[in-house]
Amino acid sequence: MIKYDKKRFLFMGVSSLLLLVVIAGLAVNVSKTMPRNTYVYVNDEDKEYYAPNCVKDVRKLRLITVQEALSLGYIPEPQCAKSGEFLQKGRSLAGVLLEKMGILKELPPRWNKDGSWNY
User: Fold this and answer.
1) Cα separation of 31 and 91, whole Å?
2) What pLDDT digit, counting tens, does each position of 49-70 carry?
3) Does a structural domain hold residue 24?
């Protein structure tokens, strides 16, 4: 009877741990930040940079890489940053695992390798 209780206790412990791992894997999302060679618009007066989706009139703005903007001390424009333009929402940890296993297709990137935006 005691051996049965130990096995049952061990089984319940392992099952609970696996359940927690699965729940955490579904709840935690992985986001990607934009590559340093991504092009952004900068406002030299305000020392802020913008994603293309955040600006309508670019006549008073310059186009440079985010790496250049950061080296000049520019910051992301707050409303643009708040809208999530500088991040790509990714999959949950479980989704990343399924992607690595080839079960799910990779999400299309928000940015191209040449630094342009994928809109």
Assistant:
1) 8
2) 999 999 999 999 999 999 999 9
3) no
